[in-house]
Amino acid sequence: MVVKVRKLNGLKTLDEMPIVNYAWIVPNCIRERTITQFFGISGVGKSTLILSIIKYALDSSRVEQVIYLDCDNCENDEIIAFSKRYQERLHYYFDYDPKRFKDDFGAYDDLKGVLFVFDGIINFIENSKLNNDESVNKFMQMLRDLRAKGATVMYLNHTAKHNDSSAKGNNQLENYSDENFKVTRDNDIITLAPKKYRIRGIKSTRLQIDIDTFEIKSICYDDKLFGLSDDEKMTLKMCVEILDQNGSGINQKELTSKLYKIKDENHFEIVGKNKLWTLLKSFEKNLFDINKGSNPNEKIYKLLNDEKAKTLKENILAFDDC
Q1: How far is residue 163's CA from residue 171's CA, in Å, rounded to a whole number?
Q2: Fewer Cβ close by (within 10 Å): the C or N end of the chain?
């Protein structure tokens, strides 16, 4: 006799949920009703980036209102002038006291169309314990509550002290965010490298920003990394690290030997050997140069050094270790 488990009372199953096509705050980069972390070194331009996203979102009516809670920056005339342009649509609070948050925003049930920005998250985390599970989980639950009410959430963080491919603090910050972008800058170009690639359609994004007006002048994408499995991401990252240390290139035998040695030492999950060569071949002329060697069937793998390859390399090195 087959036992049929009854449906749970008061809970919807996935097939009963409505299909919702969420809009993009920034196309193929930041989606509404998500929690997004931006991390980078001090002075890279994270605040400039956020203000440019705010301007873009408000000017294009992709959000109705922005709540900017700033515990990190000092008051300055430039930002005051910027906020005055949007009056009731942008509420920018300097020197915000995080202890007020529940009283200020806890009573709202519907926050659809509202973008929350948290600048200086160490002040929002209990006792500033960025590496404490309980303290970080309380902060992330606060953000998840906002998302559940329809809000979009962005927050700023610094890079980890000994690993500039990860954000500072407890892993739960990255784990419970829908996406984590590493922020780098080259003059007026800010690059956002996703770490998860879990949101369908998300791409590595380069924004050209006018730092005087905070206008996004152009948006460029690189979508080659979307859809890769965790094993493929880890394989690519390890290959890039190996080839980066062997500038003149190495053959497939040496590459395989070094790759599997690192895999075994660190217990990483990577693709099998047959899939390895197919994966690397798919990035030929974009990331790798693959040439015939002097011996029969020998192939030499070498990292390309043009701007496109450098950007792709930075994005791959920003992947999480799987």
Answers
A1: 13
A2: N
